UniProtKB/TrEMBL annotation:
Protein name: Tetratricopeptide repeat protein
Transcription is among the record's keywords: no
UniProt organism field: Flagellimonas ochracea
SMART domains documented for this protein: TPR (SM00028)
TPR repeat ranges per the UniProt record: 98-131, 132-165, 234-267
Lineage of the species this protein comes from: Bacteria, Pseudomonadati, Bacteroidota, Flavobacteriia, Flavobacteriales
Database matches in InterPro entries: TPR-like_helical_dom_sf, TPR_rpt
Length: 466
């Protein structure tokens, strides 16, 4: 009885590798060569895949399937001209082979011409009997083009064709999320669950959508159904823990996080969440224990180092906070969040020169948040380096031109730097943007209270805004 290659998938591969080790030449069916080539390409063993294509075409020179696999390898190696030439030859023989259009689309996609790739895939769709893979490729091309509406529709087609295609299901939900259509995602997932009531993946995604729109009780119910469908689904327990945290049910949240640890090896993220819960419950020793476990489990997890630093900072143990944030900087000195936390800790320790240095690193590494500019300018103001403080605030306004806080602070610093005209100009801008912050400004710069012209300025601004 002949052996079925699908029943013994390794047989042809072992036979091929045996042939390569000897001078013998074995004959294979074209289908066997396809199996061998796919095996090597899937493993990333391109040279062996190319060898199999070469021998395969020697034995089966008219096999279009082997030639199409050769096109795939040529495209992978960026040999587009050779791939196109071979596709022209194949198309001359079989003009209605959808794989030709798929391979041409792949070439255009690799050259970032995604619109052309989409058009070719749409042509392939008209020729194909099985459209599943084409819809999947279309979805990815639309994602490359940031066309989330059409990407969503393509991945929906994949799910229609195969309810168990969870990769496409995830992509559908991703598109809904990007479009901020959470209601649409909830409706779609509920429809899907009508057909597949025990799909833990869909329940899990539904829980995340409910969480996104603050429907926490519904999210809890969705995660419970995910757990009923698969009681080893770690993600459902973890996400359920986050919802329980949000609801202030910290002990229950801890139970769910601990379940994730019992299902699989402990993760730094689970330790971190447990630590946060214990800190909220006032269990400082347990919080500290889990924070230490977090950074031990994953020394590169920035949230872990920030949590342990915040823990000591909140306990007003600033020296210990500084010790841990410096330890984090030694591990990853390119992380702007570490430098920003260091800056705040130096401020608490009244070490303003080091705070200035840390803020500079924070900005140099790409953190341009509003409170970064305000914090740095405040440090420089306290150091009485008014020119530098002005420079920082002006730079901050490039990112946040509508910020009244930056304008108020800039007005005050300009005044202290004896640049009265610039101070008045920025103060007017600030008041136009937010008059309510004027009292805070007076507290920060009390010298303004004694100037009668400030009251006149306020009156003028109020007239123009009413």
């Amino acid at each position: 009885m002949a052996l079925d290659s699908n029943e013994y998938p390794d047989k042809s591969i072992n036979k091929f590798e045996s042939m390569l080790k000897t001078d013998d030449v074995y004959f294979f069916d074209a289908e066997d060569f396809e199996e061998i080539i796919h095996h090597y390409l899937n493993l990333g063993k391109i040279s062996l895949g190319k060898k199999a294509i070469q021998i395969g075409l020697e034995q089966h020179p008219n096999s279009l399937e082997l030639k199409l696999l050769q096109v795939e390898v040529l495209t992978f190696e960026d040999k587009y001209a050779a791939a196109e030439k071979l596709l022209d030859e194949i198309q001359h023989i079989d003009a209605h082979n959808e794989e030709i259009f798929i391979q041409r689309a792949n070439i255009y996609s690799k050259q970032d011409n995604h619109e052309k790739a989409v058009n070719l895939l749409l042509e392939a769709l008209h020729l194909a009997d099985n459209s599943f893979d084409i819809y999947s490729l279309l979805g990815m091309e639309y994602l490359f083009m940031d066309d989330y509406k059409h990407a969503k529709e393509s991945f929906m087609k994949c799910v229609e064709l195969d309810d168990n295609d969870y990769s496409s299901l995830y992509n559908v939900v991703y598109c809904f999320e990007f479009l901020e259509d959470y209601d649409g995602a909830i409706h779609y997932l509920n429809d899907y669950l009508e057909r597949n009531p025990y799909c833990e993946v869909a329940w899990h995604q539904l829980g995340k959508m409910y969480y996104a729109v603050d429907m926490f009780q519904e999210a809890l119910a969705a995660y419970d159904f995910a757990i009923i469908s698969d009681d080893t689904f770690m993600g459902a327990y973890f996400e359920k823990g986050k919802v329980l945290e949000k609801l202030g049910r910290y002990n229950e949240a801890v139970e769910n996080y601990e379940t994730t640890i019992s299902i699989e090896d402990p993760t730094s993220h689970a330790y971190l969440r447990i630590g946060k819960c214990h800190e909220k419950l006032g269990n400082t020793d347990l919080a500290k224990y889990y924070y230490y476990n977090t950074v031990h489990e994953d020394p590169l997890l920035d949230k872990g180092w920030l949590a342990i630093t915040d823990f000591h900072y909140n306990q007003q143990n600033y020296k210990k906070a500084l010790h841990y944030i410096n330890k984090a900087i030694n591990i990853d000195g390119e992380n702007p969040l570490y430098w920003k936390k260091a800056a705040k800790t130096y401020i608490a320790l009244e070490n303003l020169d080091e705070a200035d240095f840390a803020f500079k690193h924070t900005v140099d590494l790409g953190n341009y948040e509003l409170d970064t500019w305000l914090g740095w300018a405040e440090v420089l103001k306290r150091l009485e380096d008014y020119n530098s403080s002005i420079q920082v605030l002006v730079q901050g306004l490039e990112f946040y031109p509508e910020s009244s806080e930056l304008h108020y602070k800039l007005a005050g610093v300009y005044f202290r730097n004896k640049e009265t005209l610039a101070a008045r100009e920025n103060l007017v801008k600030a008041m136009h943007k937010d008059m309510e912050q004027l009292e805070s400004f007076k507290e920060e710069f009390p010298e303004f209270k004694k100037f009668r012209w400030l009251q006149l300025l306020v009156s003028e601004v109020k007239k123009t805004t009413t």
